[in-house]
Amino acid sequence: MAYHDANNQNFSSQNLNxxxxxxxxxxxxxxxxxxxxxxxxxxxxxxxxxxxIGVPVAILVIVGVVxxxxxxxxxxxxxxxxxxxSAAAASVSSASVxxxxxxxxxxxxxxxxxxLYMVPLxxxxxxxxxxxxxxxxxxxxxxxTWPSDTxxxxxxxxxxxxxxxxxxxxxxxxxxxxxxxxxxDPYLSYWNESIFGNATDWYNDDPVAYFFDDGNGILDIxxxxxxxxxxxSYAYRMTNDTKWADRLWVEIQNVAGNYTTSFGPDxxxxxxxxxxxxxxxxxGYGIAYDWLYDVWTDDQKAAMxxxxxxxxxxxxxxxxxxxxxxxxxxxxNTTGNWNCVCNGGLTLGSLAIIGDDDxxxxxxxLALTVPNALENCAGGPTSDGTWSETQDxxxxxxxxxxxxxxxxxxxxxxxxxxxNDAYKLTGYSHMYGQGLTQLFAVxxxxxxxxxxxxxGIFFFASEFDEPALALYQxxxxxxxxxxxxxxxxxxxxxxxxxxxxxxxxxxxxxDQWVSMRSTWTDINGTYIGMKAGMNQGRQTHNDLDCGxxxxxxxxxxxxxxxxxxxxxxxxxxxxxxxxxxxxxxxRKMTEGQNTILVNKSNQNVLAKxxxxxxxxxxxxQGSSTVYxxxxxxxxxxxxxxxxxxxxxxxxxxxxxxxINNRTQMLVQDEITTTSSFQWRMHTNASVSVSSDGTxxxxxxxxxxxxxxxxxxxxxxxxxxxDAVRFDSDPIPPExxxxxxxxxxxxxxxxxxxxNLQVLFSPQWNDGTSSVTPPSVDLANWSLTSHNT
Length: 788
Description:
InterPro entries: Chondroitin_lyas, Hepar_II_III_C. The chain crosses the membrane at residues 50-71. Keywords: Membrane, Transmembrane, Transmembrane helix. Its main location: other. By secondary structure, this protein is of the alpha+beta class. The protein has helices spanning 82-90, 97-105, 172-184, 186-203, 219-239, 242-255, 275-291, 298-321, 337-353, 361-375, 393-412, 421-433, 456-464, 467-473, 484-487, and strands at 2-4, 10-12, 60-62, 112-114, 119-121, 504-506, 513-517, 526-531, 549-553, 556-559, 596-598, 610-616, 635-640, 649-659, 664-673, 677-683, 686-689, 695-700, 703-710, 718-722, 743-749, 752-762. Strands 12-13-14-15-22-19-18-17 form an eight-stranded antiparallel β-sheet, with no helix packed on it. The chain has a five-stranded antiparallel β-sheet with strand order 6-7-8-9-10, covered by helices on one side. Strands 11-16-21-20 form a four-stranded antiparallel β-sheet, with no helix packed on it. Helix 3 packs across helix 4 (186-203), helix 7 packs antiparallel against helix 8 and helix 7 (275-291) runs parallel beside helix 9 (337-353). The chain contains 15 helices and 22 strands. Residues 6-80 and 85-97 have low confidence and may be disordered. It is globular and about 80 Å long.
């Protein structure tokens, strides 16, 4: 099966096998799914492991003429590497420059998608005329603003809806101008083609087949149905061709159990025991009912209302009103994605049928879902915008919240206070959490995303007047989605990176992480992510990983995350107490992270680290995609993570900084402990250790990274191991998944007091030389402390 990305390129499932846990946004899932009885994987499942497993050499999909006037530096000569391919994409004849600039002038900036990491590639050009300051409704594109909605409510109420259809997310006044907007805007045009491409693929495919996964129920099935409901409904409304409505009716009958094959148990077809499934089916039904309201016959609408209430909304009332029912656990003290998705799906389904529903179910639910979402899901992002679970669960939570809030606004005229400051910031958290290759994906990465995308950013961008967010998301691989056609404000103009700081510190005590980079627009640059934060309070989706870090350089991720364990494994989600069996699994225990491991033991779940220092030269990229940092440019961050360890460790501080104008990175640990400890880093590079053990050379696709132990860490030496547990570790309830292709780079030290400094030096091919910085204690770090 193929899907079409934001740049209207067709990718087969083979090309979507991401080597990292935070790979492509549609096929990122638990790696421990249950295989169906016939031995075949459920359709659409991809590989989610961070490690490379049978991944073809990265290729580029070129979507336009790419300028070669000024090619970015720091790239490999190896034609198989992402860096070399990026250079190849940018290398066209000078005769193409003018036509390429004309293409850029249309407003479409990303010229290619890297199919290994699914990130946009930008032409490396110094002409900045088209890369203007981010804005909405500029004089150039003012005609592409949405008309004003004529509907308003003097006293908004969730149960009082507009009289015209559609009422969910895309009112008729937007459909009336959409064709003209598509003709005038290259992004809308590409997305429209992509949506029709996906709809055509699904039209020719069988209806979504029922498949029950013990870990995720039928969530994949529900989200695939929702995808099709959106795409077929969109295709009909754009063409008035009834073939799309007829094909959608097949899907509607299928998930109701009224088609040619069975679909789950008669009493609970939408799997209320895993209520996410129920909610997503309800959302899909609501969209289909509302967007094609004028197409369905009265009998069809009656049948849809019956199914929606019978298998969806009635279970929602049970979740709220039956205190002894387990299915409603998500409605109490749950700020994560479950509350957002469940309330969102129930809200969309209820808004769709209210006025036609003579059972009173829809109105009862709307009186419950809105206040409950305000009490719970409204707190999904912390005060700095970071999603409280993990970077990947952000997709599910923000999608559910944006759908719910948008539908309330369009259907009833109010957001009821759901648009708070944290949701204004959450788009920036997502941007900074995306490295140059992929996400800083700590913790669990979740099930397949399918209908859960990052496109809620478009909605938040418009509601909060933050054009840079929309300009960022429109180049991403998951942007081609029916929601984008109505949430994106096509009057947006400019380059998201113009004026965007390279660095950002996220200070909320739950999160505590930093993002630092050398560029926003060149995959071959450098990126560092490091975290401290708490080891609890994340809906049992985190790892024991204070001090964890990732590194990007030269188009590769050199230090990465292993991602999910097996969601179906016994006790995987049992609890987050110190004795939880969750922490027996390698991918969740401290041993499986890129941090300090003391006494071969897990970190303390009660850890409350503190950020001790952060500073930056406050570089912003400017308008050009070609960006060379100024002399002395740097950033640093360090934290006290002593509380992550026990009484044998009286002090533990960890920091990271750029060296040599952001071309090298330093990770520094100052630790005092009465136990032995290990410095650990997971990499899918091949690793060669020098004879004296003080230097390791990492190699990926011909590109090299030198990793050196600096003085005063006398006696420290590198060793390596496979990514497997120690023989002395507690035995987990189920065997770990294998991690083939992953090497752990280790420094093992005896008890004592140490200042351990590890320098990462990418071997650039542009003549950039590495330096050896002076030794400076963390407390004395400054913006100039490591100048040579």
